[in-house]
């Protein structure tokens, strides 16, 4: 019998396709929300709405993604072993999530004056929308991890889509005259995560029984999830998320703080959107890849594990090559027109961002392999090292042109990150003696 026979039959390829449709549709609906908000509000109010969304999105993804990943990995591992998916591990994940949410709330209350008066021009409504929305996302991300672990990707896609559709309803109410003002538009951001949870009861009403595992290929468990192991995993993934946001935003912030040209920070942000957009869609692959790999790791599916990584990395490489060649050929006029940039862009610099995007996506794939193998700490060290060197490079005078510095630095940092994660990946397999035992069991 082949290794991995005991894993659930639904592969990550099918899940990735379903999630890609859901997340892509969600992206379109989110763009519609902001396009309609721009029509419903004046320029100052619209800027505040985008600011609230940007802060909420970064905070929620950084502090709650760790629990989504923890749940996804743990539930998939237990299902592959034929263990029940309810119980102590859910309570542990819930406790850690509550700790993250409570920490945010305490910090938000302590910084209320800075947020409300400094960022939101004295608007208490926008401040409370931010606080309520971030707290609501705790439940939304918990549900995402739960659904991903059970490989219910259609429901996962429906959850994120329902969240986006709910936001649009609020801005439509303003356009139609049922409501008015920036507060009504902003309330959609707080209501969306609550509304998205409507899909969760659907899971329990149509819950499927997992097939029994093949005990001949199930690896020995190293013990169930404990608070210490869960917290360690969550903190490591939190570090990964902070490092990723650093790779995407540090160049904009350093240029904003040091460049005499007020346009340049906006140009750097627009150029790095070349990387941001594919990373957003890649969440679909990540969301389905981790539970798939966790199931294979639990059932000694070494070859299938490697094949999943190899196929994904090769697909990313081909995609990045096409994007980079396109940027090299016609990048400057396309990007300048698309983002209305009054700045001369270099073909080579844009191509470097395309290559860096490919390394970034590959690193995300290798990161999921590390999480599946419980190497979250080693992965976090790779991310933090790369992010720290990137910030140091952006603050150095090694490249005079700050735009080229950002493009070169991003490409170099993601290449280093990818290389470090390759080392982690190669060290992540079983020892030769242990692998021989697993192969004998699978044979």
Structure description:
It is a single chain. The protein is mostly helical. The protein has 2 domains: 8-204, no CATH class; 233-443, no CATH class. Helix content is 80%, strand content 0%. It is built from 15 helices and no strands. Mean pLDDT is 86; it is low at 1-10 and 430-443.
Number of helices: 15
- The total number of structural domains is 2
Helical/strand content category: mainly alpha
Radius of gyration: 22 Å
Spans of at least 5 consecutive residues whose pLDDT stays below 50 are 1-10, 430-443
What's the overall geometry?
globular
The secondary-structure element order is: HHHHHHHHHHHHHHH
Described by strand count, sense and barrel closure, the largest sheet is: none
Assign a percent range to the helix content.
over 70%
Terminus-to-terminus distance: 6 Å
Tell me the strand percentage band.
Answer: under 5%
Mean pLDDT: 86
Q: What is the number of E strands?
A: 0
